[in-house]
Every structure is written in structure tokens, then in C-alpha cells.
Amino acid sequence: MRIYTRRGDAGKTSVIGARVAKDHIRVEAYGTVDEANSFVGDAIASMRERAPVDFADVIQELVEVQQELFDVGGDLAVVKGKRPYKVSADYVTRLENKIDIYLEQTPAVKKFILPGGTSIAAALHICRTVVRRAERRAVTLSLVEEINDEALRYLNRISDLFFVLGRVANARENREDDLYVRSGDVFRQK
């Protein structure tokens, strides 16, 4: 199998249902999701190398997230009506349930948290910020073309999961989160 097709040499690429310029907002949206997925893979690799701390459950979760991010990217690559969307409300509900479970593993916090702590936590915060950029790109796309609203909701919620998992990584490695000390209290305690 050849990896190159030469079809993109003139600055155009295929999406599902059309050919567009490689800098089209649709390509920017799903390309940023792909970038986020690569950072997730990097975070997984870091966790696999991190003995004796056990991240098996988080790795399993992130492998599922990678599958879902492929579905999100695919849905963002679809021109309206060219194929059914894959991402459904169930994806978002699953994330919300996982966020709630993992949040229980973190200490209460009232202030904003700085990205960082352990190297794994920092990697998960990078995932969070890249997904936020993907969300912004998807919003821009949604202003000019129809997209799967559930894919947009998923991008919003997955960034919350990365935030919580970054905190979990710090907690599991006995590292306190770095707080933004110039902040007033912003999070309410239950």
C-alpha cells in the first residue's frame, strides 16, 4: 500500500462529500481534533512508562477517548447529508459519568489551577487546551456550515475530563495542584 496519493499536491484535500482547500475551516476543525488525539497518545505513552504509579484505568479511558476523537473528527469532516453522524448524546453522557467518578479522586479546590504539576498532569492539560482550540474551530465551522451538535458538545465535555484527569494524575503521584494564587475563590464546595 502506498501512503501518498499526490491528490493534495495542489493544496486541496477530500472531506466526506467534497474537495476543499487544505486551510478550509472544516479541515482546521478536524485537523485540530487529530492534533489533540496525538497529544492523548503522548499522555498514554507517558503513563505506561510511569511505574510504580498505576494509571491502568486512566489509560483505558484515554484509549476509548482516542476512538471517540476519531469519530468526532470524522463527523467534522462530513458535508451535511453525506453520511450519518457517529457521535451521539451517549458519548457526552459517558464522559459526564467518568468526570464525576474521577472528580471524587481529587482534593477539593477553590482557586483556579495552573496547568502542570507532574509531567503526566501537564500532558493532560495540553490535551485540554488543544481540545479547547478544536472546539473553537468547530464553533467557527458551525457558523457557516451545519455540523453535528453532539460532536461540539463532546469537545466541550472532553476538555473537562482532561482537566479532572490532570488533577487525578497529580493526586496519584502525591503532588498538589499548582494554584493560581492571585485568584479569589472561584469553585464552590459541595
From TrEMBL:
<dbReference type="GO" id="GO:0009236">
    <property type="term" value="P:cobalamin biosynthetic process"/>
</dbReference>
<comment type="subunit">
    <text>Homotrimer.</text>
</comment>
<comment type="pathway">
    <text>Cofactor biosynthesis; adenosylcobalamin biosynthesis; adenosylcobalamin from cob(II)yrinate a,c-diamide: step 2/7.</text>
</comment>
<keyword id="KW-0808">Transferase</keyword>
<feature type="domain" description="Cobalamin adenosyltransferase-like">
    <location>
        <begin position="3"/>
        <end position="169"/>
    </location>
</feature>
<keyword id="KW-0169">Cobalamin biosynthesis</keyword>
<dbReference type="Pfam" id="PF01923">
    <property type="entry name" value="Cob_adeno_trans"/>
</dbReference>
<comment type="similarity">
    <text>Belongs to the Cob(I)alamin adenosyltransferase family.</text>
</comment>
<dbReference type="InterPro" id="IPR029499">
    <property type="entry name" value="PduO-typ"/>
</dbReference>
<dbReference type="InterPro" id="IPR016030">
    <property type="entry name" value="CblAdoTrfase-like"/>
</dbReference>
<dbReference type="InterPro" id="IPR036451">
    <property type="entry name" value="CblAdoTrfase-like_sf"/>
</dbReference>
<dbReference type="GO" id="GO:0005524">
    <property type="term" value="F:ATP binding"/>
</dbReference>
<keyword id="KW-0547">Nucleotide-binding</keyword>
<protein>
    <recommendedName>
        <fullName>Corrinoid adenosyltransferase</fullName>
        <ecNumber>2.5.1.17</ecNumber>
    </recommendedName>
</protein>
<keyword id="KW-0067">ATP-binding</keyword>
<dbReference type="GO" id="GO:0008817">
    <property type="term" value="F:corrinoid adenosyltransferase activity"/>
</dbReference>
